[in-house]
Amino acid sequence: MGILKKTACIFSLFFISYKGICQINSVKHPNIIVFLVDDMGWMDTSVPFYDSTMPLNNRYHTPNMQRLASEGVKFVNAYAQPVCTPSRSSMMSGMNSARTHITNWTAPNKGEDADEPDGEIAPLNWNKNGLNPDTTAKDMSHATPFPKLLRDAGYYTIQVGKAHWGATGTPAANPHNFGFMVNIAGHAGGNPQSYLSEQRYGNMPRKAQPQAVPDLEQYYNTGTFLTEALTREAIKAIEVPIKRKEFFYLNMCNYAVHTPIMADPRFVQKYYDEGLDSIEAKYASLIEGMDKSLGDIMDYLKQKGIDKNTIIIFMSDNGGLDQHQRGGPGNTHNYPLKSGKGSVYEGGIREPMIVKWAGVVQPNTVNKNPVIIEDFFPSILEMAGVQPHSIIQKMDGQSFVSYLKNTTLKEADRPLIFHYPNKWINISLSDEAKYGINYFTAMRYGNWKLIYRIRNQKFELYHISKDIREENDLVNENPAEVKKLAMLLGKTLKERNAQMPINRATGKPAPFPDEIIK
Amino acid sequence: MGILKKTACIFSLFFISYKGICQINSVKHPNIIVFLVDDMGWMDTSVPFYDSTMPLNNRYHTPNMQRLASEGVKFVNAYAQPVCTPSRSSMMSGMNSARTHITNWTAPNKGEDADEPDGEIAPLNWNKNGLNPDTTAKDMSHATPFPKLLRDAGYYTIQVGKAHWGATGTPAANPHNFGFMVNIAGHAGGNPQSYLSEQRYGNMPRKAQPQAVPDLEQYYNTGTFLTEALTREAIKAIEVPIKRKEFFYLNMCNYAVHTPIMADPRFVQKYYDEGLDSIEAKYASLIEGMDKSLGDIMDYLKQKGIDKNTIIIFMSDNGGLDQHQRGGPGNTHNYPLKSGKGSVYEGGIREPMIVKWAGVVQPNTVNKNPVIIEDFFPSILEMAGVQPHSIIQKMDGQSFVSYLKNTTLKEADRPLIFHYPNKWINISLSDEAKYGINYFTAMRYGNWKLIYRIRNQKFELYHISKDIREENDLVNENPAEVKKLAMLLGKTLKERNAQMPINRATGKPAPFPDEIIK
Do B21 and A27 touch (CB under 8 A)? Predict the structure, then answer.
């Protein structure tokens, strides 16, 4: 009894309330959410990003993206790299992938090369382990990731879902090393072994592969689809800074809509009923599940009264899959864009991007300025009001915040580079040429796009603003433009210390595009 | 160019420095670290917790525990439950395991019963899924965990290593649900599938079991022993609140020294050289690796200048293993204590506990007041200066902070309950009796200890202060004490709504100890 009373007495001297501990000063910082979808194509939505509504816009149901677009601005010329790790590491570092030397997706195991072997071209010594946020390690591309800067500035930083910045056995495997305080399900794996709780998202005893999704044991055998589990965890995670009266950065990276293409049981029946090919019906259900995830988060922000002070940036990390594992004929899945994931054609690199920022962005607007994934780094820091001081990398990205604030502002032309000197998949040489896959580098500059096929050193030239499907190659009609762009592409690649693959026969690296111009 | 300049201009208006964001008020809160070891016995250290140095104290090398003890206070009558989940869930909830109905370790899969089947006694309907921090779920013991209270009060809360508060498919599997902002390697599993990075801590493709340790992909194939990987992650994790000028709570739960008993290659050779049994040499290396973990954290705190404002509480979750998988004869591994893990004899429940709190605790002192694992809940809150308001559970633990502040204070006698109405392992009935394992309940009260074997309703009585080895059963010599203690034990169990197992033959629950006293 005496003890209890003494305890109570001591307690009363010590107790404090939350508000006494941490005071937010008068400057109000926005919360920021990047909603990064995996492998989602430009047309995989009921929001039209093209000039008119296309058949695929009618196939997919994304009411929450529609809501987001009506409250924000659509960037209709937004770009990423053809595959995921290059895009994701560029976003984290602000560097273009030509500079990071992370030009292909990274395998989950250290030292393992995701590149397919090729008879003609030798293996490239690219940064196959990914992005190293640790300045001491020596075998990877180094960068100070922006979430680290946000965290050090007082932001509550959360990673949910796919990370895929690099391999196991290296710091790249761990989102904490990138500045995230909270990590849920982010690791070295680039796809989910399974979307199903009944399969423990892959973590089945003695069946698990490196792509088994970590951290979701709570949902095993609960019937919770992966997209839903991640969404619930994300909402729980942002509840914490809300309670602590801290502002947050949420990197919301659904594994959807990456393969394996599995039916999201909440949505798939409708697509079967519409008569879609069964793989395509499953794919559409993954899209709609992802859209619900966005909607649930938007609803939660509103319910908590912080929707007005929370920026949402919607993005995908590369184009929609058009190769193997999709249903129906190829070169249709991103129509009117050509090809898809893995390609330097628009189908592989053009992304659905929306930014909502209440009070700053004019609702329901369209912005035509070309932007690229490495622009996220300086843009997010500017939105947060955090300076990129003492970063160790040279940044290629430019902030797009000025376009958010001033819709009439037009960007000066600048080279957007898609450098992919790797072999993604084994296909025939004619399919390589047809689909723009394996050993390509490309550049968008203003209205133009130059494509350089490294294997045979051939150019293609498209007036991308008039010919989004890249059907009319103008390389013979406009040699002056080819020359101008090839010089700029070559110069930019060299400035970024880009790698070129080596020809097995000659032992020499392929020439840069400016070097074969007469 | 114009864009870049505009961007720079906008930046300058927005930038803030860290200190502007979050101000710590003038009240100084201590950082708190609980360093909870798994399965470590009372004698598994070179720090003597007994009256004199014993042979086992000479076997083990724990220089950092010695350092901690020299800077703090040794609690030489500290207790936990005979196995891990009961102890860990009591610590999280402040409830005794008789009240939580979490009286055995929890299997990693929801609904799976870790109890061994028994011919005589029916399965117990205990809370086999563990502790539910979520008040909405219905099939588990509910509690507001103290880390949640700390987090809501502004503490930066970190879980590293073993959690094991409950099963997959329930909120208990996820440390975030307990109030931890950061979780590294804590999940439903209660032991590490492997300590070796070369075996990916168990996450080997197609070989992983539910006990594969999550979140450490960064260390795969780096030669980093599990204990070292967890320690490095813990240090990285506490670097964050130090930078953010926040105070932190670290729940540092090494998987060591739980089975599988694997050699920590940094330390094992010395023990082989000393001629120890090979299993025991490996075990001793696990102990020393754990001790290095403690030392590394202490060094880091000192290096950062926060050692004086950081409380360290060292504890183990149950007694040292004395059964299968250890080397050498049984009933020796915790000598002079009897038996080990799983037992209600002292070898199963008495723990090495040290508290360091600079400026509050007198260095190099010994405290003889009996304390028990559920006392951690109110003690840690009191240390933090955080009120346990609006908690949903009835707390059994009492704060030991007053003993830290006043070394002469003597606790009023109170019942410390070790209720284990489950079947832990399959052993013979005579071994059950000999080792105090399977279907026991026990109570320490002042100098006395009453043991009640539920299976045959027999009592044992020991004067624990004079007979720590529990060799002289006084049940026949002192029936008055037996009666007094049996009445108190029965009353306390009933107050806590404790469960009793059901006899298969009669269909009736075993009588409470007070019910068989004439």
Answer: yes
Asked whether residue B43 is domain-assigned, the answer is yes
Mean residue pLDDT across chain A? 93
Residue of B nearest to A222 (CA): B169
Q: Judge if B379 and B293 occupy the same domain.
A: yes
- A221, A234 contact by CB (below 8 A): no
Residue to substitute from A139, A165, A218, interface B, most B β-carbons within 10 A: A218
List pLDDT tens digits, range A166-215: 999 999 999 999 999 999 999 999 999 999 999 999 999 999 999 999 99
Contact A202, A192 (CB under 8 A): yes
Q: Which residues of B touch A182 (CB under 8 A)?
A: 176, 181-182
Is the same domain home to B490 and B342? no
Minimal CA separation from B25 to chain A, in Å: 6
Judge whether A18 lies within some domain. Answer: no
Say whether both B448 and B329 belong to one domain.
no
Confidence of residue A27 (pLDDT cuts 50, 70, 90): low
Chain B hits for A187, CB-CB cut-off 8 Å, are 215, 217
The chain A residue lying nearest B181, using CA atoms, is A182
* CA proximity to A440, closest of A342, A508, A374: A342
The answer to whether A310 touches A30, Cβ cutoff 8 Å, is: yes
Does residue B22 belong to any structural domain of this protein? Answer: no
CB spacing of A2 vs B412 below 8 angstroms:
yes
Of B29, B173, B208, the CB nearest to A208: B208
A23 CB neighbours in chain B (<8 A) are: 22-23, 25
Q: Record the pTM.
A: 0.93
3-state secondary structure A277-322: CHHHHHHHHHHHHHHHHHHHHHHHHHHCCCCCCEEEEEEECCCCCC
Q: Same domain for B364 and B423?
A: no
Domain harbouring A473, CATH code: 3.30.1120.10
Contact criterion met (CB < 8 Å) for A3 and B401: no
Q: Residue A117 is part of a domain; what is its CATH number?
A: 3.40.720.10
Q: Is B27–A10 a contact, with Cβ atoms under 8 angstroms apart?
A: no
Residues above pLDDT 70, as percent of chain A: 94
Name which residue leads in pLDDT, B137 or B514.
Answer: B514
The residue from B405, B439, B454 where one domain ends is B405
Compute the distance between CA of residue A400 and CA of residue B306 in angstroms, rounded to an integer: 42
The mean pLDDT of A90-118, rounded to a whole number, is 96
A379 with A461, same domain: the answer is no
Overall domain count for chain A: 2
What does the pLDDT average to over A326-336?
95
Give me the domain span that covers residue B160: 29-405
* A425 and A381 fall within a common domain: no
> How far is B503 from B122, CA to CA, in rounded Å?
6
B134: confidence class by pLDDT, cuts 50, 70, 90 = confident
- Angstroms from B250 CA to nearest CA on chain A: 14
| Rounded Cα gap, residues B358 and A221, in angstroms | 47
Q: Could you report the predicted ipTM of this complex, rounded to two decimals? A: 0.91
Q: Which helix (H) or strand (E) holds B366?
A: strand B365-367
Q: Which of B155, B154, B149, B31 lies closest to B388, judged by CA?
A: B149
Please enumerate, as own/partner, the contacts of B66-70 that have beta carbons within 8 Å and a separation of 24 or more. B67/B295, B67/B298, B68/B294, B68/B298, B68/B312, B68/B314, B68/B354, B68/B356, B69/B354, B69/B364, B70/B363, B70/B364
Residues B66 and B166 reside in one and the same domain = yes
Assess whether B314 and B385 both reside in one domain: yes
Within a domain: A437: yes
Of A362, A381, A405, the position where a domain reaches its end is A405
Q: Mean pLDDT across chain B, nearest whole number? A: 93
- For A84, B162, B485, the CA distances from B413, given in Å and listed in that order, are 64, 33, 12
Q: Is residue A307 scored above 60 in pLDDT?
A: yes
